[in-house]
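sry for the spam today, last one i promise. struct tokens for design, 780 residues
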């Protein structure tokens, strides 16, 4: 070892010096491996003749190939040996990437096939032949590979494999309807009645104040969406319905159409059509994602993005509701600030406070205070007195306000009321297919907003479903992909009747479960109650004060904002400045400009973070813990690790794909030059050229290798071999794996030096590199 070497071990290890070119077979065997399991990586049999690498020598052929035969030719007993320090242990592969040479594998397959053939005779064999010769039905042709495996498992365990079993998985109603009994009905009915009392008035508020569509379209979302989800959804306790964020985004699309001159502020029919188009588009996107098995998409948007965007939506909603709560609606229409930013609306509000309607503000403020006080009381009392959850405080506030308005004629005193509630077409439940060619103009305008509605809706539904679980029925397993399909179908059906987009909400689902709802029957009952409300109760909603509806929305806005301080304090505590920057960027862009701009900036920054994280290689240079055979990340522990003279040990802890191999060569070059990937490339070379005579790749974490990754890796190995650098791979997947097959087919195996250069661990690679260096010295 050269004097003054900055990478010399503090305590020189005898690991690489334990084997020399002149070592005998016994000494090599004792120094490297006494186990046939480990020796299997170096597959050479004297009886089998010379290996392929020795028969056709190339520049990559190991010089001491015949000296490294570690296989036990004279076993003490037949069968696998389980003796040794670490016995018992599983049987290791018999060569690089698992399995011996082709001839050995073929011989083994033939020897194993003979007893299988003799034992497979009789009725079992005849049954198998009849089953294979039977013509395939359409159901059999549609079976996936996973279904075929499931069929074999079912037959092995005596379970009947039929189409109903798979249909029950994709249509959970076939499971819970079969197990449903009347003891569940009381709890489901009470829960549905409680949810209807609390959230049906909320649906009216969302439609009228946020989405700017007829109030009945909000009720439609509680008719179709819960019903469809009860049939297809995998979370029995979840209640699907309209949400504040989705309703506000629908309102932005409608406002955009009005600003472009495609209709007026009072064109209820156009607004309802656009609402149906947005709901249908969001449903179609979610459905396609479910069919394509994209249930992991709820992880695409980061928590800071969601918190920033939801808080921004809460702030926008709160500012929007101040105008009707102060009785400034008509004045705002004259000033045309309805489509302005939140800052412009706040400037308008403060400039016209002296013109606020006193009675309107009193009704709104009283309703808001009563609901917030009841909410806090229920939160504190519910752990000790669960029955308080049954009190429909919002429903009572709405009924009392409507009754007082009728008795004291507040409508004649200037308080705005809901008025006649009817469908824009004049007839309830009018069917309109949202994807007609005549709607293409609105479809193009609503595409991006519908995508965000679908993403936010699925994320909230996923959080609610994971929190609630599916414990009511053991056979119903929660599945993100089936959730996507159920929500997509529900919104497409709702969009055909121009309903608001509906997704799962944790708040109302928690109310449903805490008040006795145990099965999807509560969703079906809720759908029926809403249908009865539309059929018989709409005339009684005439005197419902709009300030009360605005106060209900303000409560929702408060709930959207109240979690933001907790997240901000947490990110401040851990110094997560990037996350805080993203949150405030979205919040400020939404408040000062528009919801659309805040949405676009947030999605762009989130996707940029995802792409940056996915495309950055995470290769590490490894160093040895002195006195051991353990290796760790040298960049994380530079002071307590030692480097091996003449060797660069590189760990690749992730799959190699087109996304993360773009900078792989550059990162490896930095490791060669500086011993760390954190050094600036302007520095001169810090590691000598002879410090990289041997490159050892630890690829245990490479669980995937696509074509682009294999091509880049092949170019790297080829470049090293042309420079005279020896290449070793440790902890390689088996030959039967996709990674193993790709390594062989791409020529990387042969280029690196054959199967001899693919070993069990880094220690063996170090020993082998020392052996080959000594062998070259003898030959030379």
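last one done:
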């Amino acid at each position: 070892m050269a004097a003054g070497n900055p990478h010399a071990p503090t305590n020189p290890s005898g690991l690489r010096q334990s084997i020399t070119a002149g070592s005998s077979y016994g000494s090599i065997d004792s120094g490297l491996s006494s186990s046939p399991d480990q020796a299997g990586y170096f597959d050479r049999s004297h009886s089998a003749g010379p290996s392929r690498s020795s028969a056709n020598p190339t520049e990559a052929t190991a010089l001491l190939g015949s000296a490294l035969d570690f296989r036990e030719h004279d076993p003490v007993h037949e069968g696998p040996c389980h003796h040794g320090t670490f016995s018992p242990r599983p049987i290791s592969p018999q060569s690089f990437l698992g399995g011996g040479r082709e001839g050995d594998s073929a011989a083994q397959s033939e020897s194993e096939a003979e007893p299988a053939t003799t034992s497979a005779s009789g009725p079992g064999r005849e049954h198998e032949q009849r089953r294979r010769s039977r013509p395939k039905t359409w159901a059999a042709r549609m079976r996936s590979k996973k279904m075929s495996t499931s069929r074999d498992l079912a037959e092995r365990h005596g379970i009947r494999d039929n189409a109903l079993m798979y249909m029950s998985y994709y249509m959970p109603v076939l499971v819970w309807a079969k197990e449903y009994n009347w003891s569940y009905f009381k709890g489901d009915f009470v829960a549905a009645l409680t949810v209807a009392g609390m959230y049906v008035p909320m649906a009216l508020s969302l439609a009228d104040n946020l989405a700017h569509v007829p109030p009945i379209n909000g009720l439609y979302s509680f008719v179709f969406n819960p019903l469809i989800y009860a049939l297809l959804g995998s979370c029995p306790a979840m209640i699907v319905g309209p949400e504040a964020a989705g309703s506000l985004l629908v309102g932005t699309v409608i406002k955009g159409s009005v600003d472009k001159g495609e209709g007026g502020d009072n064109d209820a029919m156009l607004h309802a059509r656009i609402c149906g188009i947005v709901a249908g588009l969001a449903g179609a996107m979610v459905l396609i994602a479910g069919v394509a098995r994209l249930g992991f998409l709820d992880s695409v948007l980061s928590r800071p993005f969601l918190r920033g965007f939801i808080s921004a939506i809460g702030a926008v909603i709160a500012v929007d509701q101040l105008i009707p709560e102060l009785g400034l609606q008509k004045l705002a229409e004259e000033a045309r600030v309805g489509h302005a930013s939140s800052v412009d609306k706040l400037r308008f509000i403060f400039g016209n406070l002296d013109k606020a309607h006193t009675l309107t503000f009193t009704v709104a403020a009283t309703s808001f205070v009563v609901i917030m006080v009841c909410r806090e009381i229920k939160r504190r009392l519910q752990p000790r007195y669960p029955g308080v959850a049954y009190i429909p405080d919002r429903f009572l506030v709405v009924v009392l306000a409507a009754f007082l308005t009728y008795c004291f004629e507040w409508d004649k005193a200037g308080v705005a009321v809901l008025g006649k509630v009817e469908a824009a077409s004049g007839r309830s439940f009018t069917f309109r297919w949202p994807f007609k060619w005549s709607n293409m103009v609105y479809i193009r305008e609503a595409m991006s907003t519908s995508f965000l509605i679908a993403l936010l809706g699925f994320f909230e539904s996923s959080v609610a479903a994971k929190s609630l679980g599916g414990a009511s029925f053991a056979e119903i397993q929660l599945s993100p992909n089936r959730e996507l399909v159920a929500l997509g179908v529900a919104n497409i059906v709702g969009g055909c009747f121009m309903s608001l987009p509906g997704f799962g909400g944790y708040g109302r689902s928690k109310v449903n479960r805490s008040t006795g709802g145990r099965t999807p029957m509560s969703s079906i009952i809720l759908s029926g109650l809403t249908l009865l409300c539309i059929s018989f109760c709409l005339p009684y909603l005439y005197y419902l004060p709009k300030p009360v509806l605005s106060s209900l929305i303000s409560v929702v806005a408060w709930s959207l904002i109240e979690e933001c301080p907790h997240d901000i304090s947490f990110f401040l505590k851990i110094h997560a400045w990037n996350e805080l920057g993203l949150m405030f960027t979205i919040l400020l862009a939404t408040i000062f400009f528009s919801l659309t701009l805040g949405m676009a900036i947030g999605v762009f920054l989130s996707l940029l973070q995802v792409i940056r994280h996915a495309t950055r290689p995470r290769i590490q240079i490894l160093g040895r813990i002195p006195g051991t055979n353990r290796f760790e990340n040298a960049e994380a522990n530079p002071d307590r690790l030692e480097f091996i003279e003449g060797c660069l040990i590189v760990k690749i802890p992730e799959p190699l794909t087109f996304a993360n191999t773009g900078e792989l060569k550059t990162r490896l070059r930095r490791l060669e030059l500086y011993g760390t990937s954190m050094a600036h490339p302007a520095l001169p070379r810090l590691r000598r050229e002879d410090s990289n005579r041997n490159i050892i790749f630890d690829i245990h974490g490479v669980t995937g290798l696509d074509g682009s990754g294999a091509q880049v890796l092949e170019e790297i190995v080829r470049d090293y071999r042309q420079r005279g650098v020896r290449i070793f791979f440790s902890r390689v997947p088996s030959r039967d794996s996709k990674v193993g097959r790709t390594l062989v087919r791409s020529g990387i195996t042969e280029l690196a030096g054959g199967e001899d250069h693919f070993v069990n661990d880094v220690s063996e690679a170090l020993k082998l590199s020392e052996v080959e260096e000594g062998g070259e010295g003898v030959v030379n």
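The chain has 31 helices and eight strands. ok im logging off now
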